[in-house]
Batch of 4 targets.
Target 1
Amino acid sequence: MIFKTLLNMIHLEKEYKEKIVAALIEARKNYGGSNAEFANKWRINAAVYSRIKNGEIDGVLKDAHWLNIGRDLGVTLHERKWNVAKTEVFAMIERDVLFCQKHAKGMMCVDDCGIGKTFTQRKKSSQTHFNRPR
């Protein structure tokens, strides 16, 4: 109950919402379904997604919803620049992601902490390879 109350007290700046919109538009480029399917993936009404895509951001979603979408897309106010090193781990995870996409499979990556599993999967492989809804 306390967490819900805190979420209702959050106020996000327009700059942060604009970054989320940019991330949504970028994610849409790699999504093979319709705009309605894409909106549904993010728990947004299709008409609301259309408004967001056309630049309307004030009052279309609650700040808590913006925050959840931003978190899921890895949006932050303060950019951290990562330099990608195509290591053996990077190549292995990229191959695994491609295999899963090609064969409609799922896979869990388990290894040492801090070696780049999440970064590789989220920031490179899953955003640079076309995603198709099932």
Target 2
Amino acid sequence: MSPLAWQLPALTARRCLIHEPEVTPMFQNLPPDDSDYKKVIKSLHTKSVEATIQSYIPSKVLNSRPPEINPSESSLSRKERSRLAQLRSGYSPILQSYCYTIDNSVPDRCPLCNQTPHNTLHLFNCRANPTELNVNDLWTKPVQVAAFLKLDEPD
């Protein structure tokens, strides 16, 4: 493919963006130089991502918008982070309620206290495994939750 073929889509996109009424005021120079164009694209992307995040439905687990995930989660293993993400969604093989939706022969009961339903909220309210942590801590204190739930142990 010729070098010109790679440049044509960008040039076409640039020309199209200049004529969008909400975008035109964002350009400092017309025609825009590369740096100006990149700033506008980044700004449009940021606004689009923010709008998308705002449009998300509330968390099934929290019944509200979830908080930001604490950066300390990056210190956890991939397995632990994956299990935390599953628990945040309510779709985790750790949860008997989830397993029950897949296989009706699996009882939706806590293996420790026999209460039902055995969902994410119950993990933090189980009388047989008390904790000061709460369901919000899946986002705000992921390292402590991973230790409490022993997410690094083999299946």
Target 3
Amino acid sequence: MRATSLLVRLGGLVAIVGGLAATILGLLYVLQERGMTLGFIEKAVRKGAYEGPASTMLLVGALAAIAALHLIQRRHYGRLGALASASATGGIAMVVFGYLVSGSASDSVFAVGIGMLIVGVVVGSTGVVLLGIVTIGSGVLPRWYGIALIAGSPPGVAIMFLFLTPMVMARGLPGEIGWALAGIPWIAAGLAVFLAAGRRTEQASRVHCGAEGHGARGKLTSKREEGHGDKFRNPQDYTLSKCIPSASSGDVCGLLR
């Protein structure tokens, strides 16, 4: 349980970092559009030098968040959730691989990379949206986590961008604001996963303490039974130990004679 919680937290942190990278890049474009001087990074931002690393970090963060989400609710969302998780993971992995391969000088390899990009975007988008819907229905995590997944998918980002299109057309915002729109939902998703791992660890500790309490009470009951001597020669007179779980105080153990 501790190893799983550690992996879930790590996945949440990676998702947060990836979302932050994309969000910061989008905000830098906004500041540059407003005439702010960005110092030594201004030329690099203007040339788009940070777009490649930011997109890779965002995609890796999305993969980490989806993997962590699968660890949290794999026993709750059934085959549909497993299919959605596999589709999202496979699609995003294809996008990452296709992006890396498409930079090759070979025409055939370039064509393969572009094909993987297109298929990966379609499969990954479908998987992420479906995973968000399944997450909302499972009830394991808050509903806003599923909404964040849907918002962070390519269709979700496109819909949010449509609402900002008038401002982009009026030169109020640069088109690169889409980086921030893509990054913010994955920051929220990573934060939700990280917090969920903390709750799982706390619940596991309570269960462990409750189990130890059962053992201690069971030993005490046995000693009491041994002290009664011949009173328990008849098997029907034996004391039965019964433990009743309580939400407020852990376990309440009583003796039924």
Target 4
Amino acid sequence: MPGIPAATITSPTTNARVKNSVLVEGTAQTVGVDYWLWLVLFDYDTSRHYPHRGPIAISSNGQWELTAFFGSSGRYDITVVAADKNANENLSLYQAASESSGEFLGLPNLPSGCITLASVTVVSS
């Protein structure tokens, strides 16, 4: 069985000040068929997790980028998680329902089967 993937966030960096959106860039290694990478924002004001347009598409050289959107100003963790099959399905269902309704209410907890690989804290203004 393949191991757990590895990922980094190269931009933005911890404690960066960002606007209502930011291009998040990073690298990923050993992402096999058992895991999918997702970008998730954690909003400190609401204590909710906001999955973003996943799973992340990774280029052949291991680079990835995705624009993160912030619902309000405040402090956020930008996190890359590895999601197993069940977690990926749950995140995909959340994303589809949110896009369909136009309401992104966030999740109180990440689904079981998500493993945090990288995280930075930013302040949105």
